Amino acid sequence: MSEQAIVVVGAGLAGAHVVQGLRAEGFAGPITLLGQESELPYDRTKLSKEYLQGRMDRTAIRLHDETWYVDHEVDLRLGTVVESIDRAARTVRLTTGETLPYHRLVLATGADSRRIPFPGADLPGVMALRELGESDALKDLFAAGGQLAVVGAGWIGLEVAASARQAGMTVTVVAPNVQPLDNILGPRIGAYFADLHVRNGIDLRMGVGARGVLERDGRAGGIVTDHGDIAADAVLIAVGAVPRVALAEQAGLAVDNGVLTDERLVTSDPAILAVGDIANAHNTLLGQRLRREHWDNALRQGALAARTILDLAGTYDWQPYFYTDQFDLGMEYVGNNLASDEPVVRGALESGEFIVFWQRDGVVTAAMNVNIWDVNDTLRGIVGRRVDRERLVDQEIPLADLP
Ligand SMILES: Cc1cc2nc3c(=O)[nH]c(=O)nc-3n(C[C@H](O)[C@H](O)[C@H](O)COP(=O)(O)OP(=O)(O)OC[C@H]3O[C@@H](n4cnc5c(N)ncnc54)[C@H](O)[C@@H]3O)c2cc1C
Predict the structure, then answer these.
(1) What CATH number did the domain enclosing 395 receive?
(2) What residues make up the domain containing 207?
(3) Which residue's CA lies nearest to atom 34 of ligand 1?
(4) Which residues line ligand 1 (CB under 6 A)?
(5) pTM, whole model, 2 decimals?
(6) Do 204 and 262 belong to one domain?
(7) How confident is the model at residue 3 (pLDDT cuts 50, 70, 90)?
(8) Does the pLDDT of residue 66 top 50, yes or no?
(9) Selection from 51, 88, 19 nearest residue 275 by Cα
(10) Main-chain phi, psi angles of 315, to 5 degrees
């Protein structure tokens, strides 16, 4: 391998976009993309939505087909696990014992589903959702029908609950918060999501802590909660994700809630970058480190890492973005509000089509468009600006004229 060799560990959204960015920017040197999963890199966001609902098949969720990697001379190695990094020798070691040299290394190892070590968590029928096979298992469950208990009312818990309900399952969701997502969107908008789910037939039990999984015939038969038992045919644990930092820690890189990077995504070792869910990166726009587990972050950071490697301009200088689809709600969010920021609703929540701005000390910290499309770029231009509340709610004033 030449001096220039780039090795990317993790063939998920971010890793694939590093590779794509390198070739798009004209890099002609050797690239190796190493992925633990045996699937061609795919879009994980579909696993709780279109793929799970049977509206997209496994080829449709791929980021590229197999020939793309061949055509772009990317040495894609699937089913390949990197075990360790030797920073002094600039090599990575695979579990097969093979070592690969690198000139620059990119860590894009993503996140794992958070596990709860409560009784029964290992029983068959206790599920999580991160990988394609887990979405397949949920699909099989939907086909069999019955009752699903979901522990956790975050994005993935709510999306799977919606998909399960739409597939005809009886669904109970439990979480200790007062409202779903209230730790992110605040209680008022959290209550909107609660209403959406209840309206669509979810048995939503907020303020309820799960304490364990009930056993029935050697399988999960429901959950034990601090408000009594709930019977179910399967249990989905959806209580967040943890960054996969084992490799970085083993290599002695600086790690604190993810792998620490500067604004160019370079870690504490100048030869190693980190991108996507594992990167706790310095955001120059917000003047703070951020670790985001979102689709857009993986795409943009992948492209930025490629530019950094090629010594092209660019920094992590954008507002975070994410989206979700649940029942008939589709939304996009841009910004970085605190749950305690004041929500300002433009339009009527009851109409199902509205925009929420969050404000702190008169400054818009985030905005969310619900079932209103092609406005998110305009909202991005408003976030970070000081705008009077009266103007934000006045639908006579075009969005573009708000800031
Ligand atoms: C079900 C689900 C739904 C989601 N929905 C949304 C959504 O609606 N909107 C949104 O904005 N975001 C969503 N996300 C989040 C989004 O998918 C992630 O932020 C994104 O996939 C992160 O990309 P990544 O490349 O950092 O990590 P990943 O996509 O997780 O990829 C990491 C890859 O690295 C591999 N790997 C790890 N360790 C090693 C190793 N040692 N050797 C080799 N390979 C390794 C893993 O196997 C994995 O394939 C969702 C996530 C999930 C799980």
Answers:
(1) 3.30.390.30
(2) 126-239
(3) 10
(4) 9-15, 34-37, 44-45, 47-48, 81-82, 108-111, 129-130, 156, 244, 247, 276-277, 293-296, 298, 322-324
(5) 0.97
(6) no
(7) low
(8) yes
(9) 19
(10) -140, 170
